[in-house]
Design goal:
Blueprint: E1 3-7, E2 10-13, E3 18-25, E4 33-39, E5 46-51, E6 57-59, E7 67-72, E8 77-82, E9 91-98, E10 109-112, E11 116-121
Parallel strand pairs: 2-11
Antiparallel strand pairs: 1-3, 3-8, 4-5, 4-9, 5-6, 7-8, 9-10, 9-11
Amino acid sequence: QVQLVESGGGLVQAGGSLRLSCAASGLSFSRYAMGWFRQAPGKEREFVGAISRNSGTRFIDSGRGRCTISRDNAKNTVYLQMNDLKPEDTAVYYCAAGASYYYTSVNEYDYWGQGTQVTVSS
């Protein structure tokens, strides 16, 4: 059974940083691209960024320069480092496993975690 478990969310002041983690089990982790998405109240889930099997990364425009994604295949874990957080970054953050880091649509990812809440206060 595939499981993705996010952690590291919490309450942070604007301008602060958080590092989210996503631990995977039940799949050949190194064979998957890993994506990060977020969903704010009343909004659709949106793509934040992704990392390829070879650790190439890509991000949405609002995250570029403030976010980094890394992976540790030995630990079956992917990370999302977010800096200079803004109140508009408040959302539930999800990790997902898929075939390609070019994928930006929810429907293109095969497995999902349960999410971790990030709240940024102004």
